[in-house]
Each structure stands twice: as structure tokens, then as C-alpha cells.
Amino acid sequence: MQNFLIGLGVGVVLAIVLVVIMSVKRHKEMLAVKQETERLKRMLTDRMDLESEGLSKLKEQNEDLKKQNENLRISLSTYSQKPGRKEVARLHVYQLAVDRLTINSPGFGAAWQAALKESEDEFQKTYVGVQPFIKRLIPIKTDAAVLPRTVETEER
Fold this sequence. Notes:
By secondary structure, the chain is mainly alpha-helical. Helices cover 85% and strands 0% of the residues. It has helices at 2-80, 85-104, 106-125, 130-137, 151-155. Helix 2 crosses helix 3 (106-125).
């Protein structure tokens, strides 16, 4: 019986040692898991802060772009109503009509191109030399009838 008690005592001591070792290991694992959880929480908090800052910056940029878009829309509408815009549109219509006449009328194209070339050359000369200075001082009248004649003006 004495051998039995000695074996039982050795077994109980070994069991207690194993339980203590296992509990220490488990405690270390729990600390490691707790540290990892804290690290992940910090990372998540940092990421959420960065994303919220980025989102707020994107919202600010979106608002700024909306304001700029509205300003540009208003500027465009006021620019299109400025004096001269209708005239430019009318010139585009005239240019289309001239292009069509050039294609459809055989004699018109050559005469038109020659007159256009002469006019362009003369217009370019108005930027260089003494001629622009003189034209600013003395207005030149042209032979071309800019305004259509009415019946009253022809009778006079």
C-alpha cells in the first residue's frame, strides 16, 4: 500500500505541475491575444480616423466643385448674353452660306477666294508698319455697300 501511495503522490504532484505549466501557457496566450486585440483596435481606430478625414476632404472638394460649376454656369450664361455674341453666331451662319455657295456655284468660288485673299492680306497689313497708324488717325471709307439699300435711298 505504501508503493501505491507513493505512486499516487508522484502522479498528483506531476498532475499539479502539468496544471500549473498549462495555466501559465494559457495565461501567456491570453496576454498575447489581448495585446493583438489591442493592436488591431488601434489600427482600426487609426484607419477609421484617416477614412473620416479623407471623406470630409472629399465632401469639401465636392462642395467646392459644385460651387465652381455653378459659377461657371452663371459666367457662361452671362458671357453668351454679352454684346457681340449674336454677331459671332451670325458670322458662323454667313461662313456656312459662303461655303455652300463655293461648292454649289462654279464661278463664285474662284472670285470669292481671290477677294477673300486680298482682304486677308490687307487686314494683316493693318497690324504692321505705318498703315495701321494712319488708319487709326484717318478713317477710310470703302466702296462696298455694307447696309442694304432701300427704295428711298435709291430714289435720292
